[in-house]
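Changelog note: in this version the structure field was regenerated for every chain. One regenerated record is shown below for reference.
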Amino acid sequence: MTHQHHSPAPGAPAAGSELSLARKASLTSGAGDFVTRATGDVPAVSLSDGPHGLRLPKERGDGGQVDLHSAAPATCFPPAVALGSSWDPQLAGRVAAAIAAEARAHGVHVVLGPGINIKRSPLCGRNFEYFSEDPLVTSEMGGAMVRGLQEAGVGAALKHYAANNQETDRMRVSADIDERPLREIYLRAFERIVRRDRPWSVMSAYNAVNGVPLSENHRLLTDILRTEWGFDGVVMSDWGAVRDRVPALRAGLDLQMPGTGGRTDAEVVAAVESGELDAGALDRSVARLALFARRATAADGAGAGEVSYEAHHELARTAAERCVVLLKNDGGVLPLAPGSGTVAVIGEMARTPRFQGAGSSQVTPTRLDVPLDRLNAAADGASVTFAAGYALPGADAEPEEDLVEEAERLAAGSDTVLLFLGLPAQDESEGFDRDHIDLPEAQVRLLERVVAANPRVVVVLSNGGVVRTAPWHDRVPALVEGWLLGQGGGAALAGVLFGSVNPSGRLAETIPLRLEDSPSHLSFPGEEGHVRYGEGVFVGYRGYDRRGTEVAFPFGHGLSYTTFTYSALTVLPEADGRRLDLRVRVSNTGRRPGREVVQIYSRGPAGSRVARPVRELRGFASVELAPGEEAEVRVSVDRADLAHYSEREARWRVEGGVHHFEAAASSRDIRLTVPVTLEGDPSRILLTGRHTLAEWLEHPVGGPLLAEAFARGRTDDSAGAMADPVMRRFLAGIPLDVIADFPQSSVRPEDVITLSAKVAAEAAGGELPTGDDDE
């Protein structure tokens, strides 16, 4: 696939060079709520919320002001919480292309999405907008959406950069994160998408990282995003995220949104005139904004083409079908047989479905498939009856006991119960976090009474964030995770429950037995303006596995109405040594056609010098097979993706040794394992006397030099010390310059200086970090 790079045409004049200072400043803030400013030959850009469908303003007022409380109809596709469970980047790309088509039809140039923040805690109120607890799943799904939008001529705004993992105090809180988890978990998806998929824009988050607000964070916006990763698009702020416009521009933030009526533009002008802000920083932002605006509006006047909302609804339904996760199916309760038996549908959410989250991403759907209606249609003559069972908050209803008694009577007289449970909209939204992960108490009481009346119960969940299923999931034979499925979700659920659709969704996040088991539990959401990411790299399944914590349903889990077996896993390095080619044979050993998601994990070498997860996802692929059919599935893994981030060396590093590659159906359903010996990346630390004996001995250059020095100058005492394993272990953690000061040491202080110089000379030609702890 060819990716567009954002470079001006050769010989093009510097954008905005003819503009006055005031007009340059005006370009760097919005003209209204969702439109940028047109100045000179720089056109205005229309923006819209839309990670899973456009939130289109019904009316525009003077200056581009819009009605934020209502939106015109647009197709509501499954939100990221559901789409992530499809593990299907191609599907995500199709959804994004459809969103782009609707955007162009309405004159929208840039869609504000996708959101690719990591699900650090199940309590985050905005988790429904994010794909996964894993950066690889996030980058594959989010990257596909960026490509789908931009290949259709509509810009993406990758958000929220970075470490925006909670809603509590979201506009002020500092996410305090060590460098390694910041790089490996919270920046990794952004890095992959920026390098590979070239988004036209990135949206900076509200929060601070390590005390520095993102809108003013030069290290993240310039040093890492632009210099390291090569981002050449526009950085825009989240709405209302800019605290001080002048340092934000200096840090690399190009566009403040929304506009402030000229107030902060005047601050920029005054700062340039006083010398507080370098005029070159403003000019660079203006040039990027001009290029961005011309790219975004390039297709204006070319005609947007017809949009088939019926076709888009069918795509929304198809996507929802692939997102449903069958968590449990004891005794083959599902699928139900159309045309026979009696089915009791219980739960107000079957009649009044939740299909999306609340906040800035809320879409007015073009139509809505209601689960109860679609179940009646799919039953094909079977008797389907309904009882509400509970009332949703704010709705007029009968007393709770009357609702429960009606549900009990209906359940007792039916062959099977479909019990629709989930979180009401008031429980999760942008703007606040949850304080528990339980279903509403009334729903749990209903479940207990219904199960007592008829144990043949299928629970169908609707929720944007994880809900606790323990201990009640042991009492029901079947459990379906329906997430929030968009406007086609009702038909998708009916298809899965009655068997016209074979479920193939997989969990993109772990469902814990208890909230307290979550790796982030003790440090979420922080206090007094700071949240400490104390779990480090052990986020999600990485943390549950490392601690050996039992979970309700593991990352990657999902059942099918058929069965699959794996065989013949092989791992071969590609010719250039930069990638590994993994192949595994998958067979459909059941009686139905189905889709299997093959997950590839790796386990790092034994004796690693850094704390590592038990396993980490390295790739995935899916295959659709008829009964009895077998196929080879191939997954390519970048060698670089096996690296951890070394804080001491300030770079990514692959450790040498035996790495184990696993073909799996989930993070806890490992089918095949193959060991592969990989050569590690050499250490780039320039050794000094402050490095320990162990670090010297393990260094590829320093180790042999030090061993030679010991052999050359050893005394009987020092020889005995180095030969004694207990003494060697005692000395291993002592800096070499301290050892050199021991009277009996065979290495003298002057030797340490000489040895350090030799290591530096060996590494000459590259700018390498010293790694000194006290620097």
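Spot check on this record: The first strand starts at residue 47 and ends at 49. The chain is about 30% helix and 20% strand.
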